Amino acid sequence: MNKEKKSIVVLGSTGSVGLSTLSVIEQNKDRFETFALTAHSRIDLLIEQCHRFEPKYLVVSDPNQLSNLKSKIETAGLDVIALAGQDGLNEIVQHDFVDFVVSGIVGAAGLGPIHKALLTGKTVLVANKEPIVMAGDFLARVARECEGVILPVDSEHNAIFQCLSPLLPPYYSEQGISKILLTASGGPFLQTSLADLRNVTVAQAIKHPKWNMGRKISVDSATMMNKGLEVIEAHHLFAVPAEAIEVVIHPQSIVHSMVQYIDGSTLAQLANPDMRVPIAHCLNYPKRVKLNVDHVSVKDILTLQFQEPDFKRFPCLPLAYEALSHGSAAVIGLNAINEVIVDEFLNEKIGFSDIPYFLEAALNAFEAPTPSSIEDVLEVDTAARQCVRQILMKSQTAEHGLSN
Ligand code: NDP
Ligand code: MG
After folding, report:
1. What distance in angstroms lies between residue 19's CA and the mean position of ligand 1's atoms?
2. Closest by alpha carbon to 126, among 95, 145, 141, 148?
3. Is the distance from CB of 84 to CB of 62 less than 8 angstroms?
4. Domains of the chain: which residue ranges?
5. Residues with C-beta less than 6 Å from any ligand 1 atom
6. Which ligand does the CA of 19 lie closest to?
7. Residue 293 near residue 155 (C-beta atoms within 8 A)
8. Tens digit of pLDDT for each residue in 177-230?
9. Full-model pTM
10. Can you point out the beta strands (E) in 65-214?
11. Under CATH, which number does the domain 6-152 receive?
């Protein structure tokens, strides 16, 4: 390992964000090297990445896969240390040698490692929005107290960050920001009739028109829950109240978001939809370094369109605003319930239109005290998952009873 280079942990290196991060690292080998790569199930891909990037550690987050990982390392003759589980993730993100942690894990599972990395003062590039949604306030406090840094990789939040630069927090109240315009592609079903939405398949739902992403975020984009989570993410990252965050549909995904100031100026960030752009921005911040991607051309911007979102077509979006108005327990509930329901949809246990139905039903049934620590956050998360599983079970029993 060479200390002239920045040493990076890529959490979830086998996923879509992970692959984009490795592509940026590969283009900038003189500046960056990988310290550790992690996977959950795709061990063969992790081994392949180890050959190319020569990290010191490989971690498999599923502890049952450790012996499989070790035997594949041995067969491949690789010189790398293998770790597993939450402990393995926590160990690598806190290592003295590490400069950056890129979190490309999907869902609440990323909360532990992001928290641990911030506790040891690391710079954490967060694509993994769910932990910010769940515990943004606590993570921001840990970052402040432990001199850690959170840099937003989610393309919209990275755009906002760029439009705010060189301002530093607190952004909203003191620095003249009047509104955030959060753009959304509208996903694959922007034009689909409400009747046809009922028959949407998993394959159709995960086929995003502009981005090539993991299954969970692709379904979230199709329901627009992704934008709901991003409203909450923006609220936490930039301390802007919900009423000052407006969602705008922009099918071309070229304008990644905008910031309005009280003097009448609106700043936007434009780029082709390619996650390597925000990842490279954060890895090089505050410098700008050449990146080999397709740049936006005049032709690309001749036909940019914007429209207001239809809350009836996308009921998950108003549900997210509503949860935010009810406070942090409701927001943690929203995120956890959504993870369970999306999983049910991906496993073909429920239909696409059932997603907002069960989300609303579970949110109405769920109650929890306001958390005052990260441990409390995890308890609320667990309780919300139990609540929605009970509702799903009852509905399956009722359906079974009806069909008998
Ligand atoms: P993917 O599903 O493509 O990748 C997820 C990664 O996390 C994989 O490496 C996977 O391992 C690993 N993983 C899965 N489950 C666990 C677990 N329980 N514990 C630890 N690791 C796990 O997702 P994306 O890359 O698309 O998204 C990652 C995060 O980034 C999400 O939070 C998403 O919302 C956010 N994001 C993604 C964008 C994108 O363009 N993809 C854009 C903006 C935000 P394995 O593959 O080995 O099973
Ligand atoms: Mg996004």
Report:
1. 10
2. 148
3. yes
4. 6-152
5. 12, 14-18, 39-42, 61, 104-106, 109, 127-130, 154, 211, 213-215, 217, 275
6. 1
7. no
8. 999 999 999 999 999 998 899 899 999 999 988 889 999 999 999 999 999 999
9. 0.96
10. 81-84, 100-103, 123-126, 149-152, 177-184
11. 3.40.50.720
